[in-house]
């Protein structure tokens, strides 16, 4: 009987933990995202939606800018998870690759811009503490992370775009 009671308590604690997590989101991340969305939309309205769309159309026209500069702008200025909203300016066919690129860049940006993805800061700080113990400068690490992140974004963007185009071409051929 005790085993069944423990299983039932464990099962219910799963939902209690889920409820606490949800409550944490409702009181922290959801209001932050709503405020960031309001801020971003306000800036777009102040600058002018046509101007913003023309500027981003120029950036997203070329894959190299779309997969390097756009995720930088999104994550540095908006942070994670709001950085994903930069995809609103992309064509539908480019969104899968942009999602991959923004997710890829969320860690390398942390060394230079810790606000961009505070959730990944513990990973960077763990590596940084090892670098500090070796007596090496952290600035070099942060810049190398950033540059490697940009290079990986470009590579992943092109690869994901190619896979997406291949799959959609195969799907439309059926």
TrEMBL record:
Pfam families: EII-GUT. The keyword Transmembrane helix applies. It comes from the Bacteria. The chain crosses the membrane at residues 22-44, 64-86, 142-159. GO terms for biological process: phosphoenolpyruvate-dependent sugar phosphotransferase system. One of its GO terms (cellular component) is membrane. Keywords: Membrane, Transmembrane, Transmembrane helix. InterPro entries: PTS_IID_sorb (IPR004699). The keyword Methyltransferase does not apply. This is PTS sorbitol transporter subunit IIC. It comes from Absicoccus porci.
């Amino acid at each position: 009987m005790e085993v069944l009671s423990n299983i039932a308590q464990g099962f219910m604690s799963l939902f209690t933990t889920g409820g606490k997590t949800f409550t944490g989101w409702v009181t922290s991340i959801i209001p932050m995202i709503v405020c960031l969305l309001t801020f971003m939309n306000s800036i777009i309205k102040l600058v002018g939606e046509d101007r913003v769309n023309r500027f981003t159309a120029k950036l997203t026209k070329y894959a190299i800018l779309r997969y390097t500069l756009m995720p930088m702008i999104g994550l540095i200025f908006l942070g994670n998870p709001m950085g994903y909203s930069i995809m609103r300016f992309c064509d539908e066919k480019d969104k899968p690759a942009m999602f991959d690129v923004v997710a890829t860049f969320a860690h390398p940006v942390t060394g230079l811009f810790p606000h961009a993805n505070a959730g990944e800061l513990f990973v960077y700080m763990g590596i940084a503490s090892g670098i500090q113990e070796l007596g090496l400068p952290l600035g070099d690490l942060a810049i190398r992370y950033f540059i490697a992140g940009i290079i990986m974004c470009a590579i992943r963007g092109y690869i994901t775009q190619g896979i997406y185009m291949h799959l959609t071409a195969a799907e439309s051929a059926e």
